[in-house]
Amino acid sequence: MSMMASETFDNAGRPAVPADEDARWRSVVARDASADGAFVYSVRSTGVYCRPSCPARRAKPSNVQFHATCEDAARAGFRPCKRCKPDQARLAEQHAARVAEICRFIETADRVPSLAELARKAEMSPHHFHRVFKAVSGVTPAAYARSARAKRVRHELGRREQSVTEAIYGAGFNANSRFYEAADEMLGMKPSDYRAGGTNTAIRFAVGECSLGSILVAQSERGVCAILLGDEPDALLLELQDRFPKAELIGGDAGFETLVAKVVGFVEAPSVGLDLPLDVRGTAFQQRVWRALQAIPAGTTASYAELAAAIGAPRAVRAVAGACAANPIAVAIPCHRVIRKGGGLSGYRWGVERKRALLKREASA
Prior knowledge:
The chain is 44% helix and 12% strand. It contains 15 helices and ten strands. The strands form three sheets. It has a four-stranded mixed β-sheet with strand order 3-1-2-4. Strands 7-6-5-8 form a four-stranded mixed β-sheet, with helices on both faces. The protein has a two-stranded parallel ribbon with strand order 9-10.
């Protein structure tokens, strides 16, 4: 069906557009890339069909037809545009596939590949590859490589049949000294302690009560490693034990309970602020998201899309939501300040009602 049976004009002298096709035409006029894949449009005067985002000169509305798929346009006798290539995968999909291929290469490489090497494999310039990789994955190639190596180290240390030194070389480190320089950041403890399941790691904890229910605060020698909220103290302790299965859990003394009181005070009165040393363990991407969360001021909120844009990964909205859900440190890393794009409250690890209460108090403060 043609876009217009006969050309009519509005009061401004512009060609009128039928109401049922108006949204698609607006997408074409705006060259809206988000509409790519939803439909294609053909131009009778040129005999080609295009994506909505095609940068070619805009056709006259009277020459335009819409088609649900490329196959429909081809059956109608149109050929694909050579500029926007509507019959090929979208550029974003091509980039995502290429980055996924590079990630697999990084994960299996016996050493950390250089940026130039990765760019050559991706068939891009180093600068363009760096920008594309970060946009798709949310982290730089170097940060991804560090995270992949840390994961590999943990895997190698988990193999009991080899020594720590063999595990170090198995993870791609060509010298013990290089590994031990990075071990604390990757493991949060000595390699031998990690292999033993954190046996020699001491974690002090205490449970308190606040208006949101029970609250557990735990601290390693590096900083606060967990703030958990819930209904039952025993359940919080079990969660802590699951997180650190072989660590030595030590009930906090009076001095440590002062720290718990400080956290409770922040929950009840957000205006007092909360500045704690944190022992944050997560992937490179998770840590970027958690740092961005800490930059959201009390009394304000951000959407998952805004948070993704803030870390330079606007297409990683779903991954950002996953990182928020994995946050083990309530209130100090304020994932409760992230809401849906429309303003609605999304899920919260410690319950939506607690999220609503925290936001209400912060807004009032």
